[in-house]
Amino acid sequence: MKRMLAVIGSLVALLLGLVGARMVLTAATAPSGAAVGVAGPTAAITPPKATTLLATGAPATPGSLVTAPGAPVLVGAGDTADCGEPHDEASAALLDGIAGTVFTTGDNAYQDGSAAEFAECYGPSWGRHRDRTRPAPGNHDYRTRDGAAYYDYFGAAAGDPGKGYYSYDLGTWHIVVINSNCGDVGCDEGSAQEQWLRADLAQHPATCTLAYWHHPRFSSGKHGSQSKMQAIWEALYDAGADVVLTGHDHNYQRFAPLNARGEVDPEQGIRQFVVGTGGKNLYQIDEPLATTEVYNDDTFGVLRLTLHERSYDWEFIPVAGGTFSDSGSAECHP
After folding, report:
1. Does the chain have fewer CB atoms within 10 Å around its N or its C terminus?
2. How far separated are the first and last CA of the chain, in Å rounded?
């Protein structure tokens, strides 16, 4: 079935790739805005399980976010393809109708990131958008020879196989992809990756900066907050980065802008999204962190970001039949 979907979707993927935003790879060599959330059964918004209305007084619906013509789009999720589950096919169907650049936040092919799993599980669904994908690796992707099949599958788009971190420009935005498999590449202060990140950010002083990787610095999910990502978070905060996208916990979370200590910082804080909703089984959230703005643990889907010159819009789009969505806008740091 998945092989049939790959054939059917190939022409669609080609057309979407042609209209995707121009990208320039540079290999590894403020306030928060108004937000709109529509809660499913387990979503928590302040007040819990409330439905926030648009300025018009109408509930937000998937696809309702209005964006300026021509602004680049970055869309994706993480924790995606398992041959034993159908949900990655449902989220890939959303990508079929959204032009732009596709990101992944790791754990692309379960269980072991093998060549067979990339070909047979990831390939027929999200793989039909491979030509417009800029991936990040997860821990499951590194179970097979330190990510060998992952790097073989994505090729140059995944960066140097010995590093897995890289950056590129999308419109006026600078995008950084981090390898959070810290035991393999190092994430601490002074590590090669952290030093590269600081140098890369200094060389690309964009008004708006976004980074993505697998293990979340902050999370209310099963795996929790990952302190090993602290030095990376601090480097991004010091450089005035605006947005971080992560996965690993299989659910959706949006946090308030946070500083290097994890405290709410509306002026210079980084807004983090956990988007582990690509298709692998979802994880329950019992007690959200106090800095959580919105969460949901029962809906697969993708996060679409529209990247304007000095601001961004976000929209979580659920798979067919889903009732949860979350959308809003914010300015980049001055």
Report:
1. N
2. 49
